[in-house]
Task: structure prediction
Amino acid sequence: MAKKKLIVQKYGGSSVGNVDKLKNVADRVAACAKEGNNVVVVVSAMGDTTDELIELAEQINAYPSEREMDMLVSTGEQISSSLLAMALHRKDYDAISLTGLQVGILTDKYHTKAKILRIETKRIKKELNKNKIVIVAGYQGITDEMEITTLGRGGSDLSAVALAVALKADVCEIYTDVDGIYTADPRIITDARKIECIAFDEMLELAANGAQVIQTRAVEVAKKYNLPLHVRSSFEKKEGTIIMNKNANIEDPLVSGVALTEDEAKVTLCNVSDTPGIAAKVFNELANENINIDMIVQNVSRLKTTDISFTVLKSSLRNAVKKSMELAKKIGSGEVIVDEDIAKISVVGVGMKSHSGVAARCFSLLAKNKINIEMISTSEISISCVLKKSEGKKALKVLHAGFELESKKGSNKK
Ligand code: ADP
Ligand code: ASP
Ligand code: MG
Result:
């Protein structure tokens, strides 16, 4: 007899947003089990539950402790996983829901952004051997001191990928409310095109620069273990997009996709002395606070002082500003200016690696449309520009059209 396949399926918040949607997920999971597969399902919290829980906490305390936040938000996934198990029982399927603690998803101790250290597979395997469908509450883990942690927003994707790696699953499917990865967020760009297959590196850049369809860290782990991911719709049957290890190909387009984020803010330290070691001091101190810096720009003036600007996630802004003000005092620099009114657009494609001119084309397109660029950063396969927030969506449209991403055979070819 052929060996049973092990399939890990992850259903996002939009796929389990209400009772009917949960029943739809139960039908799909049941169908997969009926085909003779072992099925491990990872679920997110229903709809906007996580946001609502965060708002609730903020009504009680504007600065809630991160430990208590994890205690609170991890309940969202416990609700959806138990309800899904009940929906499967109703269909006469044997299913069991498990929390991160019950599975043994061991993480470090950094609340709200914990990293997975190890996953125990014993309990899941035991339940699968009893022919049960195993439903795991996503987004959560446990420290060696039995403290509940969460894995950062969108972290159920990471739970699914890490479980698929630990269990050596045959397939890892990410079910969501779109039928795959598009050349841009289809909610903003209505003629965005679905991509059949995308390289890990491209997906990493898109995700890190605002394409929230899959969590960046989940893609990082999938890349590390070379686990292909299938992103597809929980409401339709058709194939989605495969994210995988892909060698650059002569047929690759120069640009594969564009992304927009409004989640960052810009901090400027003015009149910093233009001497060696200052930048090192500034960014070391920020790193020591676990603050992730995205873009950095330094403008040297003729007066031997410089302005250093950097961008951070708005969620780290309060901390970054506090630290910057302390630093400004310490190094005797000028004021600290904060600008939350920014957006960042990014153009991504492995095809750029071997081709010059993409940056120039990107800047010309923005210039032609009178969009001012405030900061620029590039990598081998991406170009990002910071703009005024009000120009973000327009810039995304201009670049999507300018690189002819809506058509498969545009001038967007090498
Ligand atoms: P889930 O609830 O399944 O985790 P998310 O809301 O986190 O779903 O992600 C799905 C959303 O990501 C889509 O509805 C879509 O608007 C958005 N998105 C952003 N960029 C892209 C892209 N390039 N391709 C597809 N979807 C994208
Ligand atoms: N519920 C969590 C969030 O909203 C995790 C997830 O959905 O992946 O971020
Ligand atoms: Mg998500």
Q: What stands out?
A: Residues 249-414 form a domain with the VC0802-like fold (CATH 3.30.2130.10). Residues 66-90 form the longest helix (25 residues).
